[in-house]
Every structure is written in C-alpha cells, then in structure tokens.
Write a structure and sequence with these properties.
9-stranded mixed beta sheet, globular
Length: 203
C-alpha cells in the first residue's frame, strides 16, 4: 500500500509557498512539490489525487490519500484511470482510498486559468477559448527540470510580454513532477495531464 500525504506548506521565494505531496511506498520515491503564490489556498486535498493515481498505477500498488477528498472527484477515479491506462501501455488500475470523502467544495469566485507557455497551442487556447480566460499560468518544470534556469530565463520574459499584450494576469508556478516521473518509469502521458490537474486543484 502506498500512502500520499500533504506536508505543511513551506515558505519558498518571496510571495510563494511550496506544497509537498509526501509519497510513502515500498521503494523510495521523492516527494512531489508545487511552488505556488502564497495567496493560493486549496479548498481540499484533491490536489493529492493525481499524484496518487500516478504513483499507484506506475508502481502497481493500491494508494491511500491521507486527507480530505471531494466526493465528486472521488467518483471519477475509475474513469481517470481508464483514460490513463489507454494512453500508457502496461499500466493497470489500482484501488484508491482516502481518510475522508466529503461534499465537493465550491470556490467563492470561480475563474478559468489557461496553462500558458507561449507555444502555438497555448495561444490558441487563449485566443479561441471555449469560455473566457481569467488568468494565465506559467509552470516551470513542465517542459524541463526545475533546475534548468536557462530555460526559465529564456521563456519567462516572453510569457510576461504575451500576458501584457493579451491583457491577462499572469500566475507563476514551479514543480519537480517531471523529475519524480523519471523514477516511476517516465510515461510521457504522466508529464502533462495529471500535473495540470494537481495545479488546477491547488488554484
């Protein structure tokens, strides 16, 4: 049995905190962390669930989430695993449990974030949205390791300029998800979708 539990938020760069998902498994696995603005406070522990899905399916073991998970998300775990299994050959479904499954919390002011990297798809999502975009989110660590400061120095000025031109607020985040994935086999499908799910549930 794998256990995924949240650690207390840690102060990071000025105005940011690091939220950590601690993974307890039969083999050593690094913690997964997300550095996000300190004013961002998750409504539940739902952001741990994508981490649990990745760890469980990659290691082939059931997972317990040591936290409070919304019943709406919990009810979709079978479908989420089905979609992942279709795109990552050799992975099977696992059982996922939680300390508490409770009614889905609702944000006071719902908003739509678009993950933005200045790529063609990113611009298309903003310029041809299915619904209005409220904010842009740039995630360092999605396309490269968070230690790759050269990429950050190259990409971030362009992202900031685009946000100004698009007249949209820009949020920044960082994660070591890709580094941890390499320990779990590096399935390409895990690099983007589950990570973005965690970030959206944090925000």
């Amino acid at each position: 049995m794998i256990t995924v539990r949240p650690s207390e938020p840690q102060a990071a760069a000025t105005g940011y905190v690091r939220r950590v998902a601690h993974i307890e498994a039969a083999r050593p696995i690094d913690d997964v962390w997300f550095m996000t603005p300190e004013d961002v406070r998750p409504l539940s522990d739902d952001w741990l669930v994508p981490v649990a899905v990745v760890a469980g399916m990659a290691l082939g073991d059931d997972v317990h989430v040591a936290g409070r998970v919304s019943e709406r998300l919990f009810a979709t775990l079978g479908e989420i695993q089905r979609i992942v299994a279709e795109r990552a050959a050799g992975l099977g479904r696992v059982q996922i449990t939680a300390d508490e499954v409770a009614p889905t919390p609702r944000p006071e002011t719902p908003r739509t974030l678009s993950c933005f990297s200045c790529g063609v798809d990113a611009f298309y999502a903003v310029l041809e949205p299915e619904q209005p975009i409220d904010e842009l989110l740039y995630v360092h660590g999605l396309e490269a390791h968070p230690s790759d400061q050269r990429l950050l120095a190259t990409a971030l000025p362009h992202v900031r300029t685009a946000a100004v031109e698009l007249e949209l607020p820009l949020r920044l985040a960082e994660t070591n998800w890709r580094s941890v994935l390499e320990q779990l086999g590096g399935h390409a499908y895990f690099v983007s979708i589950p990570m973005l799910m965690s970030l959206s549930l944090i925000h």
